[in-house]
Amino acid sequence: MSIDGKWNTVIHTPVGKQHMEFDLRADGATLTGTATQHGAVSEITDGSVEGDSLTWRVAMTRPFKINLAFTVAVAGDDMTGSVRLGKLPSSSLTGHRA
Q1: 78-96 b/e with 16+ CB inside 10 Å = b?
Q2: Which of 23, 29, 49, 69 would be a feasible disulfide site paired with 84, CB 3.0-4.6 Å?
């Protein structure tokens, strides 16, 4: 299954829905790409692929600085999982291929 391409996601946080776009690329077990939110583009780091499971990190700067850690599963054109928001509790994520 190819996960390469653009993904539109919604993170369901305690302060409401946050929309984020990802441009993902897999090369074997390595995941790379970018995350875009509020006009700010950040590189994905520590990305990995294992079957249909993906993990990666993003250091966002807008609307404020926060480190995010993603754990998601991909099924076709759908993505579900969770996001660790710095020191805050995890929030759920849903997404679809753009």
Answers
A1: ebebbbebeeeeebebebe
A2: 69
